[in-house]
Design brief:
Blueprint: E1 3-6, E2 9-12, H1 16-24, E3 31-34, H2 38-46, H3 48-55, E4 59-60, H4 65-73, H5 84-98, E5 101-106, H6 111-122, E6 127-132, H7 141-153, E7 157-161, H8 166-174, E8 183-186, H9 190-194, H10 203-207, H11 211-218, H12 226-253
Parallel strand pairs: 3-4, 3-8, 5-6, 5-7, 7-8
Antiparallel strand pairs: 1-2
Length: about 250
């Protein structure tokens, strides 16, 4: 399956099903899952520390049409887009069958609880053993209290929805204090979707790799990210051109 590097991020070249199977294996250590999209890749291009954080994860999934397009242009195509929310739902379906305990962390007051209720309807038998909102002091006593709550609940799966890079930084900093957690995934705004607060794009829009446009239409504030997406596309074209030139030079020399 291997890795494909885009903007310095080493993506796992897997399908959604393969990703779920991989994290459910007994690795002997906690698995951290990250789901970078084009905006995250653009941020990692600017900040090497963020790139190192992402690459430190056990599983790095390509969440976005922009990532697939960039990989294809540079001649190292990825199998498919693996949206974080799709990965999580496949994982939760398996958790319901296996009896794994799940903790939901993030969102505004009541969002995680509403998400838990809807997820348990969607996946009968799913054990959501605890929820906690995302607006707490992540560096003080409240964080220590949260760690105690999570440990008391004994989840094996922890879904963290603070947004990038806060969720990844929190997982990396705290996973060592959560001995029952075997899988920790950063999933951005997934809780809002599961709670019914945000409507996801229809299947046909997702299949056309236009979910980013749908989200901008529903949430005009996201238009502020458009310049970054354009920069990412042009930087990807430059990287693809450089890769093509290197290939041509190698052919000439051989």
């Amino acid at each position: 399956m291997g890795k494909v590097t885009v903007s310095g991020i080493r993506f796992d070249n897997v399908s959604t099903e393969e990703a779920v199977k991989r994290v459910l294996r007994d690795h002997g250590e906690p698995q951290m899952v990250v789901t970078p999209n084009a905006l995250i890749a653009q941020a990692c291009e600017r900040d090497p520390a963020l790139c190192r954080l992402v690459n430190s994860a056990s599983l790095v999934l390509p969440d976005g049409a922009g990532i697939l397009s960039a990989a294809r242009r540079q001649g190292t195509p990825l199998q498919c887009r693996v949206a974080g929310i799709d990965f999580a739902e496949r994982l939760l379906a398996q958790a319901a069958v296996r009896g794994d305990r799940v903790f939901l962390l993030g969102g505004r007051d009541g969002v995680a609880q509403a998400a838990a209720k809807n997820l348990q309807k969607k996946f009968p038998g799913l054990c959501v053993c605890g929820c906690f909102w995302g607006y707490f002091d992540r560096n003080g006593e409240e964080n220590r209290r949260l760690l105690g709550i999570i440990n008391a609940c004994k989840p094996s799966i922890l879904l963290v929805c603070f947004g990038f890079p806060v969720q990844e930084e929190w997982i990396r900093k705290n996973i060592g204090f959560l001995p029952s957690v075997r899988i920790a995934a950063g999933l951005g705004g997934s809780l809002d979707v599961w709670a019914g607060r945000v409507r996801r794009a229809p299947g046909l829009v997702r299949a056309a790799n236009m979910e980013w446009a749908w989200r901008m239409m529903l949430e005009p504030r996201r238009l502020q990210h458009l310049p970054a997406l354009i920069r990412f596309r042009f930087s990807g074209k430059k990287a693809a051109k450089n890769a093509s030139n290197r290939l041509q030079n190698n052919e000439i020399q051989s």
